[in-house]
Amino acid sequence: MTVDHRISTYFETGTLPNLPGDHFINGGPAVAYAGERMQSFDPGRGVAFADFAAGDAADIDRAVTSSERGFAIWSATPPAQRCAILNAAAQLIRAEAEHLAVVECLDSGKTLAEARGDIAGSARLFEYYAGAADKLDGRSINLGNDNAAFTLREPVGVTAHIVPWNYPTSTLVRGIAPALAAGCSAVVKPAETTPFTALMIADLLIRAGLPAGVVNVVTGTGLAAGAPLVRDPRVRHVTFTGSVATGVGVMQSVAPNVTGLTLELGGKSPLLAFGDADVDAVVEGALWAIFSNAGQICSAGSRLLVHRSLHAEVRDKLVLGAKALRVGHGLRGPDMGAVNSSSHLAKIDDHVACARARGVDIVTGGMSLVDQDSGDGWFYAPTILDDLPANDDAVLQEIFGPVLAVQVFDDEDEAVTLANGTEFALAAGIYTKDISTALRMARRVDAGQVTVNDYWAGGIELPFGGNRKSGFGREKGLEGLDAYTRSKAVTLAV
Ligand code: NAD
Predict the structure, then answer these.
(1) Are residues 260 and 183 part of one domain?
(2) CB-based pocket (< 6 A), ligand 1
(3) What DSSP string describes 167-230?
(4) Which amino acid residue places its CA nearest to atom 41 of ligand 1?
(5) Nearest residue CA, atom 42 of ligand 1?
(6) pLDDT one-digit tens code per residue, 202-244
(7) pLDDT digits (tens, 9 = 90+) for 257-273
(8) Residue-number span of the structural domain to which 361 is assigned
(9) pLDDT band, residue 126 (cuts 50/70/90)
C-alpha cells in the first residue's frame, strides 16, 4: 500500500490496518496478563483510532525475566555480530520508514514531515551505535614490570527505558541503540498516548536478527507499568525522559536498588540575540526553535532574550512569521501539527489564560484551534508573550507548547543572568557576529549544549542532556554509551 493510499484509507475508515496491539515479549506479541486494553487517540481529530494492551506488574515481570535471558545471550554475542544486526535494523527502518512515519504522525499529532525526520534520525542512531559496538575497548595500564593491568568495558545488564510522547521513536532509539551496542538488553515502556512505533521497532529488530528477549516492550500507564519496571531490582539502569515531577519519583524508586539512572527532564531554553545579530537569522531560528513539534520539545527555544536595540524589529517579524504558519492535521502537510492530548492542550491554555489575567502582552495567538478541514482536533495557535519580567511564570515554567516568552536585555551580564535565571539548563542558542561574544557566552550560559547562529545545529553525533532540573547523564554521541557500560579493572601478578 503506498503512503497516499494509506493516508486516504485512514481518513475514510478512521483506522490504520496492521497496527500491533499487544505487548512485545520474548520475540513476539504477548497478550496483557490481565487482558486490559487502552485506546490511542489521533490528536489531529481528537478521536480514538486504535487500542492496545494496558500492562501491569505481571507483564513487567514477564518482560524483565525475558530480558534477563536475552542479556545472557546478547552480552555473549561477538561485537561484530551485534554491529551487523544493528546495521540491518537501520536498513529495515528505512524500508518501513513511510509506514512508521504515518503511525507516528497519527499517534503523536506531529506533522508527517517531522515524523519522517524522526524515523530517518532513528535509522541513523542504529547505524551510529552499530559502528561503536566493536570499538568498546578497555585500556592497558602500566603498573611496572611486576604486574599486567587492564580494564574491561562491560555491559551493565538489563536496562529500562521510559519513553515520552513527544518523540516516541527517536527518544526510544537513542536509548536502546547504545544499550544494544554495549551488549545490554532492554525493557521499554512507551508513553500511554504513543505506544505503536516502539512495538514496530521491536518487531523490526527481531527481523534484523536480534535474539528474542533482548528487547521487550510493555505498553500501558506510568503507574501500572512504568512504576514496577523502574522498581525491579533486576534492572541495572533506567533511562527516563519526561517531566521533572515524574523524574524525581523515578529517582526515589531506583534508590533502594542503587540502580543507575539517566534523567532527561525538559527545559526553558533561551535563544539570545545580541545587538549585532542577523535579525532574519534570529527570527527564523526563534520561530523553528519554539514552533517545531508544536513546541513539545524538551530543548525547545521557549525563551527569546533579545537586545533592546533589536527588540521591536524582531518582535514584529516574529509575529508575521507566527501568523503565517499553517496549523492542521499532521497528515495534511501543515507547518505545525496538533498537541498530543486534550489534557495537555488544556494545560497550555491554562498557562496562557493565567498570563493574560496578570496582564502579559500576548502579541499573537493565545487560543486553541481546530483543524480547518475537519473542525476537530487539539491544536494551539502559535503564541508570543512579549517583554516579560524575569520572575514571570511564563519565563520560569515549562509550558511545553507553541508559546514563546520574549525577554529584553541591555548588556551581556544581564543576558547571562536572565539566561541562567530558571531552574532548567538544557540548551541555549547564541546569535551574534562577534566570535568573542559567542565563545564567552558558550562558557557563561549553563546548558548541556550551546549552538551559535543556528538553534537546531548538530544531530545524533553530539552528546545531549541537561544540568540542574533538566536532569543528568548524556545521550547521543559517544557519551551515550557511558550509561550502558561499566569499567572493570583486572591485574595479574607476573
Ligand atoms: P510524564 O513524565 O508523566 O511521562 C513520561 C513517561 O513516564 C511516560 O512513559 C509515562 O507513562 C511514564 N511514567 C509516568 N509515571 C511513572 C512512574 N511513576 N514510574 C515510571 N514511569 C512513569 O510526562 P507526561 O505526563 O506525559 O507529560 C507531562 C509533562 O512532562 C509535559 O507537560 C512536559 O512538561 C514534560 N515532558 C517532557 C518531555 C521531555 O522530553 N523532557 C517529554 C514529555 C513530557
Answers:
(1) yes
(2) 162-166, 189, 191-192, 221-223, 226-227, 230, 241-243, 246, 249-250, 264-266, 298, 398, 400
(3) SHHHHHHHHHHHHHHHT-EEEEE--TT--HHHHHHHHHHHHTTPPTTSEEE--S-IIIIIHHHH
(4) 266
(5) 242
(6) 999 999 999 999 999 999 999 999 999 999 999 999 999 999 9
(7) 999 999 999 899 999 99
(8) 270-459
(9) very high
